[in-house]
Amino acid sequence: MRLSRFGLIAAAALASIACQTEDGALKPTELPPLAFVRYINALPDTLATTVRFIDQVEFSPQTWAGVPFRGLGGGNYQGTQAGSRRFRVFSFNANASTAGNTAVLGEATHNFEAGKYYTVLHSGFARGGAPANAIRIIEDAVPTPGAQVALRAMHAGAGIGNVDVYVTETATSAISGAPAVAGLSFGNASAYVTRAPGAFAVRVTAAGSTTPLISAAAPAGTAGTTSVDPIGGASQAGSVITAVAFPASVAGSPAAASANPSVLFFIDRHPPRTTP
User: Which of 49, 88, 91, 239 could share a disulfide with 232, CB 3.0–4.6 Å?
Assistant: First the structure.
């Protein structure tokens, strides 16, 4: 069976999955220990990608198919059986035959630990240039920020040197003081920092500079009600957010067009549910 993971309480709901025995009877299937994994495509010079776990079908994520540059595969975290797991990344062309979607862009084996969360960051240049296309697996120590909002930065900007990350009220506010994250290198993520809920923007500069390379306002999110659960964002207490810095797409390449470097925000944890 294949598993999807969109919240931190989903495992409990999956515990009662049933399977059919040879005599036709149904019996509960106990889940193995699970880790939770997501995939981000940060390749700025090639086609969309498809990711498949190739060691086993059972208790693996759903295939992440046709993930565009700057895209998040499968919505968010998905459950996978813990242990040493192997997966492969293929190019994806919706206009090509099946044979045209079998070019392998990368392959990795990783020991995913039960109960932990991971981001598979696929970054670099796939068609020549430095840094070369590589798969990096980042352990996400997702906090529970309570009445605060937790934020971290991830540097996926191939061709961009070390960066400082500032957090300001708006995307045009003056930058001053010490950066929230200093000297973040390519392919890495910072630790989480917490702040009071409220509008903010992330400003990315070259390390040691206060001149913005990228500026982006975080989404506000949506408050929950008794009928709709909250959506994480800058103004919603309990939200955990990763701001990912991407490079511009390579001009003329098949990557989804992005003329300038950019920051996109991914919600690692939504605030607690408000529905019954």
Answer: 239
* φ, ψ of residue 11 in degrees (nearest 5): -60, -35
Per-residue model confidence as pLDDT tens digits over 57-101 = 999 998 899 999 999 998 899 999 999 999 999 998 766 555 556
What does the pLDDT look like over 203-226, one tens digit per residue? 999 999 999 999 999 999 999 999
Phi, psi torsion values for 203, nearest 5 degrees: -120, 120
Sheet holding 201-206, edge to edge: 181-184, 163-168, 201-206, 212-217
Under a CB-based contact definition with an 8 Å cutoff, are residues 125 and 158 in contact?
Answer: yes
Neighbours of 110 (CB within 10 A): 16
Q: What is the number of H-type helices and E-type strands within the chain?
A: 1, 20
- Residue in 241, 40, 242, 267 with CA at minimum distance from that of residue 136: 40
Whole-angstrom distance, CA of residue 20 vs CA of residue 24? 6
- Read off the pLDDT band of 13 (50, 70, 90): very low
Residues 6+ apart with CB under 8 A from 156: 40, 42, 121, 123, 186, 187, 244, 245, 246, 247
